[in-house]
Amino acid sequence: MPEISLFYGIRITMYYDDHNPPHFHAEYAGHKALIDVLSGCVYRGSLPGRQLKLVLAWNELHRDELMQNWELAKTQRDLNKIPPLN
Prior knowledge:
Layout: E1 3-7, E2 10-13, E3 23-28, E4 31-36, E5 42-45, H1 49-61, H2 63-74
Antiparallel strand pairs: 1-2, 2-3, 3-4, 4-5
């Protein structure tokens, strides 16, 4: 599961050839959540409130790049790193 970004202790990853809908995995201090790229909603797991807000803001800023990575992952190609939230 390649790491595509890391910020404020939050690790963002995507699996190769993962199931729909397009999503990414966010991990922080033992908490894990799957975030739907297009809707910006958590559909499995949870993160603490502050970290969830950061992840959702990051998703909003990088939705196009996340969708590009989703397409790359579906075909087992290398994923691009995405800038962290500053």
